[in-house]
Write a structure and sequence with these properties.
There is one protein chain. Strands 1, 2, 3, 4, 5, 6, 7, 8, 9, 10, 11 and 12 form a twelve-stranded antiparallel sheet that branches. With about 210 residues, this protein is mainly beta. The chain contains no helices and twelve strands.
Length: about 210
């Protein structure tokens, strides 16, 4: 933990207090776990009023929670990370909350084949007075590569990207979707010729 006092260029006195922990654990099987928490309190006050409370003083309280996991087994590798950050203003309804999570899976059985998938989620939740706004984004990214052992001159790759975004307010709600698949191939014909080809598209929808 730490605590300090400083004065910025506008003459405001800043009191900062921070404390938290970060714990890591690795099992005998190689699974890694992480857990962390941190709280930060920042008070903006007019210089000279350190021992008094003024109506112009503002205190921001930030809570940050982090978790993580990583594991590898056989030809697979899995990673998960997530964090939630919440900022509250003391004696106020105002709040800003953001969260992020990501799950990644990798599969590599050999030099001829590999694939990777990543799923993520972002959320931003803002409340100011009597108004509230929430924005969320889901995203999936997948990629695969194949180079057959029987024909090393041929390489095939495929990818997929899918998105879902939602915007919510007290008076409206909208959701947008998009998906983009791509398939491509490369063929090395002799030392001087290389042929490339691909096909893809994008679909978009809203509601």
């Amino acid at each position: 933990s730490s605590s300090d006092t400083d004065t910025d260029l506008t003459g405001l006195e800043l009191d900062r207090t921070r404390y938290g922990f970060l714990q890591r654990y690795t099992s005998k099987g190689g699974t890694g776990l992480r857990l962390g928490y941190e709280r930060s309190e920042v008070t903006n006050r007019v210089s000279g009023n350190k021992d008094a409370t003024s109506a112009s003083d503002r205190k921001d309280i930030t809570d940050l929670l982090r978790v993580g996991l990583n594991r590898a087994f056989d030809d697979h590798s899995i990673t998960f990370d997530a964090n939630i950050n919440n900022v509250d203003i003391d004696d106020s309804r105002d709040r800003n909350r953001t969260s992020f999570s990501m799950l990644r899976h990798t599969y590599r059985p050999g030099p001829a084949l590999s694939s990777e998938d990543m799923l993520s989620y972002n959320l931003n939740d803002v409340r100011q007075g009597n108004s509230q706004f929430e924005n969320g984004l889901y995203q999936l990214n997948s990629y695969a590569f194949w180079r057959p052992q029987a024909n090393r001159d041929l390489r095939v790759n495929a990818s997929l990207r899918a998105l879902m975004r939602n915007n919510d307010t007290e008076s409206s709600s909208t959701t947008a979707y998009s998906i983009t698949p791509v398939l491509g191939a490369t063929y090395q014909w002799g030392p001087r010729w290389v042929f490339n080809g691909g096909v893809g598209g994008t679909g978009i929808d809203t509601e």
